[in-house]
Amino acid sequence: MSAWVTGANGFIGRHLVRELAGVGRTVHGVGHGALDPAEARALGLQTWINGEVDAANLSALAATHGLPSQIFHLAGGSSVGLSIARPFEDFSRTVTSTARLLEWLRSFAPESRLIVASSAAVYGADHAGPIAESAALAPMSPYGHHKLMMEQLCRSYAQSFGLHCTVVRLFSVYGPNLRKQLLWDICSRLSSEERSLNLGGTGAEIRDWTDVRDVVRLLVCAAEEVQQEDFRLINGGSGRGTSVAEIAGGLIRNWGSSTVVRYSGVARPGDPASLLADDGRLRDMNFDWRLPLERGLADYVEWFRSQARA
Amino acid sequence: MSAWVTGANGFIGRHLVRELAGVGRTVHGVGHGALDPAEARALGLQTWINGEVDAANLSALAATHGLPSQIFHLAGGSSVGLSIARPFEDFSRTVTSTARLLEWLRSFAPESRLIVASSAAVYGADHAGPIAESAALAPMSPYGHHKLMMEQLCRSYAQSFGLHCTVVRLFSVYGPNLRKQLLWDICSRLSSEERSLNLGGTGAEIRDWTDVRDVVRLLVCAAEEVQQEDFRLINGGSGRGTSVAEIAGGLIRNWGSSTVVRYSGVARPGDPASLLADDGRLRDMNFDWRLPLERGLADYVEWFRSQARA
C-alpha cells in the first residue's frame, strides 16, 4: 500500500515517514527542503519531490508510482511568529497548498484517504479544562486562522465531492529533532550552563504535551480506521494537562542540573492559560498513548545532548 | 475622497460605482471584464484595470491616484453552480483575491476602510426565522464555504494587524441588470409567452429580497459609519421574508400576464426553506430600505422589457 506525505521533510513529517516505512508502506513525499536520494532513502522515502504541493508534482508522482491509498497532509506554516511576520506566506503554505491538493484529489484520486494535520490553535485562548472538537473556535493568530480555513476547505470538498478526510488537531507536539519551542529553549539554556533560567509567563500555563512518536502512530491509526462519514475531526491530544513549570522541572531533573527557574509572571498576550484536549474521540478509537511524559522528556534530553555532541 | 471598487464590472459593482460617483467620490476599479475608457467613464469610473486583484494592479492604482479612503471588495465567485463545477476557480476568485488584497492593505494602506461583500450562504440551510450574525454557520456549497473563509481572513487581518474591515452578508439581491436567478428566469419565460410556468421547489421558500440600489446605498453607509471595532459583521438584509410564490405573483401582475405558476413540490437539495436576516444591526445604524418589493419588482419588469426591446 502506498502512502504520500506532504511536508515529509518537517519535524513531524520525518517521524511519520519512518513510522509508515516501518509498518511496510511504500512512502513518497513532496514538500520543501533539499534531501539527496540517499538521505531520503535513509528516512524511509522512496521518492522525494522538493517543491510545491501542486498538480504538476502530484501528477508526476502518480504517473510514476500510481495513486496513493493514503495522503498525509503535513505541509503548511509551522510557526505562529512567522505567520505574524509574513501572513501571506503562511496563508499560501497552509491554505493555498491545501486547496491545490484537494482539487487534485477531486480530479484524480477521489478514493484516497486524506489525513490532515491541523492545530489546537484553532480553539484560541478562552477555554478552561478539556476542549471538545465542537467547542467555540477563536484563533488568536494568522497561523490559527489559516489552519481553521484549511479545515473548512477540507469540510467543503468532503461535503460537495465526497472526498474522505480526517482532520487531526494536534496539541503540543514535542520530541527528538524538534529544534524550537519550549523544550529546545530550556535545553539550550541548560546546555550553556546558565545558573538561573528566566522564562516568560507564569509557569502555570497548561498544555497537552504529546511525544511525536506517539503522534505519528495516531496519524497512521486515524488513516486505518473505518470512517463512517466523509469528514471527521479528531483532537490529537492526550487529555492530560501539564504545566510549563512541570516541563521545566522534568527537563532539569533529567539533565541533572540544579538550575533555578524564574518566571516573569506576566502572561504573554494571546497565550492561552490552558490548551487541553477532550480526548473522547481518541478513546472511542482505542488509541493508546505509549510514551508517558517522564519518558518523553528523558528521551528529549538524551537526544539533545547527543546532537549537541555531534 | 477616493474609493476603489474590486469587481466593479459585476452586477452589484456597477450599481455601486454609480452610487459612489453620484455622491461625489472619485472611483477607481479593478477586476475582470473589458471596459473601454468611455464605458468606464459612463459608469462613473475614473480608472478601470481589467485584471487580477493583486499587488501589481493595486500598487499601480496607488502610484497614479494615491491611496484610497475606502475599498469596496466585491470581486469573487458569484455562482453556487459554478463553484460546484469549478471549485478551485471559485476559491481563487473569492479567497486568494481577498488574501492578496488584505496583504496589500497591511503593507501599503492600513488606514483604508475595507467593506467586503459576503453572502447569507454562510448560514446554510438549517435556520428558521430571522438569522442573527451570531447564528451557527454551515455553508452548503463551495461558494458558501469560500465566502466564510474570506470572512475569516478579514477577521484575522483586523485582529492581528488592525485593518478596519466591515463584512456585509448580502441576502437575495435583485434589480436592474441582473441577468440570472429567479427574477430573470421568470421574466424570460413570461417574455416567451409560455402559458404556464413550471418552477422547481414548492414556492414557499422564504428569501430576504433586497433591491440592488438599496444594497449599494447600504454598502456606502457601512463605509461611512463610525466603527468602534476593527472587525464588524452586518447582515445586509431587510428582515422581511417573501416567498418565491409571492415574487412570481408580483412579476406576473406587473407584466400584465395571466400565466399560471406550477411548482414541482420537490425541495431542491441544499436549498434553504428560509433565508431571512435578523436586521437588528442595520436598525441600530438607522439604515432605511427605500425601495419596497412591489416597486422593485415593477422596476425590474420595466427594465427587463426595455432591454429586451434594445
Describe, in plain words, how this protein is organized in 3D.
Two copies of one chain form a homodimer. With 310 residues, the first copy, chain A, is an alpha/beta fold. Chain A has two domains: 2-173 and 209-236, NAD(P)-binding Rossmann-like Domain (Rossmann fold, 3-Layer(aba) Sandwich); 175-207 and 240-309, UDP-galactose 4-epimerase, domain 1, CATH 3.90.25.10. Chain A is built from eleven helices and 15 strands. Chain A has helices at 11-22, 37-43, 55-65, 80-85, 87-108, 142-161, 181-191, 212-224, 244-255, 280-284, 293-309, and strands spanning 2-6, 26-31, 47-50, 70-73, 113-119, 130-131, 164-170, 172-174, 196-199, 206-207, 209-211, 231-236, 242-243, 260-263, 274-277. A seven-stranded parallel sheet of chain A has the order 3-2-1-4-5-7-12, with helices on both faces. In chain A, strands 6-15-10-13 form a four-stranded mixed sheet. In chain A, strand 2, helix 2 and strand 3 form a beta-alpha-beta unit. The longest helix of chain A has 22 residues, at 87-108. Chain A starts with a strand and ends with a helix. Chain A binds chain B through residues 84, 87-88, 91-92, 95-96, 99-100, 103, 106, 139-142, 145-146, 148-149, 152-153, 155-157, 159-161, and chain B through 84, 87-88, 91-92, 95-96, 99-100, 103, 106, 139-142, 145-146, 148-149, 152-153, 155-157, 159-161. Chains A, B: Pathway: Bacterial outer membrane biogenesis; LPS O-antigen biosynthesis. Chains A, B: InterPro entries: Epimerase_deHydtase (IPR001509), NAD(P)-bd_dom_sf (IPR036291). Chains A, B: Belongs to the NAD(P)-dependent epimerase/dehydratase family. Chains A, B: Residues 5-228 form the NAD-dependent epimerase/dehydratase domain. Chains A, B: This is GalE protein.
